């Protein structure tokens, strides 16, 4: 089957609505806006919702950031504040409890490096509490961070590495940042998804990759994701459907033909996609040319949002002074 | 009009043959193979050929390198030897004449950085002739190199910068390495095009960019290019055509419909492409996920091929010892 | 002779005063403070001054920045404003005249990379005036920039490259940023020297390197330098002198011995230094462990100072928005 | 007390011999040469040896590599073979047992990055055994690798992170690569120390850093170290001693003075060193200018040596093909 992959709950819901008109059970959607940022909260509340959406129960909050924000320092700080506000109900830890921030993905591949880039910008404090406790404000929360690499670089499942570290460090919360695939180009590098479900990898070799969630690690896991690519197969698939729909419009009069078009199935479409993307298929990514710069901006927004959220006793100015 | 962009003469010829059955005047094509590498030599010999191909008169040699080569040090050295052999008839300079190697492109964008990566690996010798002439073998050719950046980074046309340098340094030959766009995914990061025509940028803002060729610089210019991307618009365009062709096959019986399909023109296709790639269109690139590694391999092959070609008195071992 | 190298006019004056008590002719020194930054203005006014200082006639302004500044975003902006103020009397160009900013040094060597790092942060505008003149505020000055590399990387004298570019681009002013060597550790990565004399390389292979000044390029050249290293030989030399001075204090009573100590000459000291630094001597640098981070801070201060100075019609906020 | 730091057992022994003429108990030294590489094996056999050397019981093998090797690909491969031969008696694991390679140090600081650079070049195979067991030669050993960062970057002790990972992955051997400080410039970036004692950090804040050895991790730990810096304080200290020794030679006739010089103690020397290195002292490193390139060469030698040693069923050509 063709895998029109999206990691965004928002898009999973859109796909569902495209394919069927039946009511979506077990899924609540709530939309609002803050500071020009469109926020969609998708709650999957039961098994029916899980099945329809292909995602586990939980809360998924999507922030869609206007394009200009990435080129405007002040607007980026506002976006970080909005992110911090969305995180607030999810970060349920006491102020002296430890948080572990994890940057998932391969730092050698630009479009996969957003997680490691965020960790570089996180205010790391846990060691200071131990080494120089008297010089550190008691309101500062102990935060630690790591980018564990990917299976091909380390030979170890990221889940194994994290489980080992979590058992030693015993954080009260894990926040994992990852690069995602979306279905629509206009969401690439402009969207942040926050969820309290952790990360459930899937597809291809990844099938036997461990989950990174509360069940696996033993502590709550907040996942923060940024779509940085659309799979080329998705572009090709959407193109095919668009062409077919256009033709269907014109061919309604010609009954035989109309039904023929309706019979072009997924197998046929998949054959065409393979033809076009040969020899790559699975590993072709579509990215804007300036992906390097925009990923840096998104990493800054997320890191600032997390820093504000994890250190409520500090202002963003305090945090910047600490970090620079 | 939709710009199905290709920088490869080989593909320009393929596109011509797809669109028309009339004989291609003023273009000679010659195909052969060396060490598993398919080589196509396209010679554009007159104005008719220039117009049909959209490229200036001259020789364009394309090497298509089998995929395994990039993962095999020995095969990479063989590919470099094949490249050096193709360069030989084009590099018409005496052994004591200076060659300037130029790495075009933006080093901050992985898929554009192949030129600067090659220059890093070139055996730079010109200064040694001046500083320590007695220690340097008289058979070593003076070679210098620079990666001048791109307009957005420097505020200066690359052509202006190079013209200024060429007038001071007075090389007898310029070799310019650049990243290209191809039309077919299977050529990305596996193809090297060599031409004696220099580089003629075109399209968009680039329209007023200076040419980098013998006319502009006053010395012969060999261009070496590697396609590192396919434009997403090309993927979408090819998908549309594939779908239409498939349907045409099935609809031959239904005359009205067949002619309707034939009437879907470029304007209509362009509208669909914009719809799918919104809001990016022009700046969307399709790249394999491991582009970082394969570009490094291609840069190594090209640099080695150039080093062998420019320093015929040395073995590849000598060159490697010098460089490491 | 031992080369206790300093590129700072401030330190050349200190060295002079250490060695002799005779009045320093042709050199005026003026000290003041702005925003906790100590500023020393050294003016060399005639040939006697040139000879005593080992530097060409002109104005040398040294800013010594307090250590905390590099870890405080706001203090860094203040330092940039102070730098802009010092540059003002030196930047004598009309608002519509072009300025070329040049980053000297080898970007592959951290302690030599401050120039290229500054150029990355400069607001490049010259091309916009040409491409989209209607969208650009007429008060914006055309600025272009380049980091030409070093002789070993390009095979070309930096002076040759720059002369070629200057003849094509015809800027009204060149600003060249370079890494320097100082004599005292406490000035490393904390000091900025501005001069209107350009750059006159000297010592070792550099003897035949071209000057980068008004005489060579045909336009005024402002040099901005940051000492990023102390030569290890300087550390060893200062250590030897310190030990000898200590012992002299104690040995004044013992006349013979005191005169013996006085007779330990430079040749003897040089032998000891070579002994200690074997086998490196000339190429050993002493750097603080966190040189990577502090050089980044210094580059930010200089780039901001230059941006403010070159674009008087804009605020620093405007500039940051443009750059990010 | 002045900390003339050396991490090399070879130098600890030299220092001991400088300070005293009494026999060194519990330490056996054995010197030989292979392929122009001088090899010194220091065995510390009992508590007396531990105390005299300031290092735990075990075997320390030091390879001193001639300077030309780093610029000669073939000589580098020979050095890797010599390293593999030294590792052989220490790597006591069955061919199907897992080895974890750990790159210690801060990848953002060039002179500290040799460990992470080695891990990048290690043949990682463990995941292939699990994902595609049928395609993998049964003689290939499962190897995994990680560079865990440093306390300041992660907020976690490296020892904690590694202990967590080791408990999950259960390797039979850990190999840890780290940058060291030596006492003599001529050993910097030319020396490799191998030991079966693991790593015992010490000095300053490091005092409470966990050991990375068999006792801490529960599996044998081989440490491989490369001295990449000499502390500036060591340079200053050695300079002081050299000056004093020179003067003592001349002052033997003057009895009073000779005894005065003998009385200049460590406290006095420390004061002078602080004076010279002010305000840095502890964090000043002396490095050759080309440290970036030579560290890359050393990382290649160590990675190749480890790859040969860990994969005895493969040739170096096989390994290079796999890695490139």
Overall description:
By secondary structure, chain A is of the alpha/beta class. Helix content of chain A is 41%, strand content 19%. Chain A has helices spanning 9-19, 47-53, 73-87, 114-120, 126-131, 151-154, 158-169, 214-217, 232-251, 255-262, 266-277, 291-310, 316-323; strands at 27-34, 37-44, 58-64, 99-103, 143-146, 173-182, 191-195, 221-231, 284-288. In chain A, a hairpin with a 2-residue loop joins strand 1 (27-34) and strand 2 (37-44). The first copy, chain A, is elongated, with a radius of gyration of 21 Å. Residues 203-208 of chain A have low confidence and may be disordered. Chains in contact: A-B, A-C, A-D, B-C, B-D, C-D. At the C-D interface, helix 9, helix 10, helix 11 and strand 9 of C face helix 9, helix 10, helix 11 and strand 9 of D.
């Amino acid at each position: 089957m063709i895998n029109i992959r999206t990691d965004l709950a928002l898009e999973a819901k859109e796909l569902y609505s495209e394919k069927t008109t039946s009511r979506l059970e077990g899924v609540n959607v709530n939309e609002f806006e803050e500071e020009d940022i469109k926020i969609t909260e998708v709650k999957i509340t039961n098994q029916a919702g899980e099945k329809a959406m292909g995602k586990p129960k939980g809360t998924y909050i999507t922030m869609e950031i206007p394009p200009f924000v990435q080129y405007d320092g002040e607007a980026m700080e506002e976006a970080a504040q909005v992110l911090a506000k969305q995180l607030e109900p999810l970060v349920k830890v006491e102020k002296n409890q430890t948080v572990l921030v994890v940057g998932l993905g391969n730092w050698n591949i630009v479009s996969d490096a957003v997680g490691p880039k965020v960790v570089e910008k996180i205010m790391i404090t846990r060691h200071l509490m131990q080494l120089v406790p008297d010089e550190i404000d008691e309101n500062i929360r102990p935060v630690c961070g790591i980018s564990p690499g990917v299976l091909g670089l380390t030979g170890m499942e990221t889940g194994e590495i994290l489980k080992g570290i979590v058992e030693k460090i015993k954080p009260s919360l894990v926040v994992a940042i990852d690069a995602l695939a979306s279905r629509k180009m206009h969401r690439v590098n402009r969207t942040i998804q926050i969820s309290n479900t952790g990360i459930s990898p899937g597809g291809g070799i990844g099938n036997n990759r461990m989950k990174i969630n509360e069940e696996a690690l033993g502590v709550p896991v907040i996942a923060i994701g940024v779509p940085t690519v659309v799979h080329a197969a998705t572009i090709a698939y959407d193109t095919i459907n668009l062409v077919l729909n256009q033709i269907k419009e014109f061919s309604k009069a010609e009954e035989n033909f109309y039904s023929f078009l309706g019979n072009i199935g997924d197998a046929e479409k998949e054959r065409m996609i393979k033809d076009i993307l040969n020899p790559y298929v699975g590993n072709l990514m579509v990215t804007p040319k300036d992906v390097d710069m925009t990923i840096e901006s998104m990493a800054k927004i997320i890191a600032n949002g997390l820093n504000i959220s994890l250190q409520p006793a500090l202002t963003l100015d305090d945090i910047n002074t600490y970090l620079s």
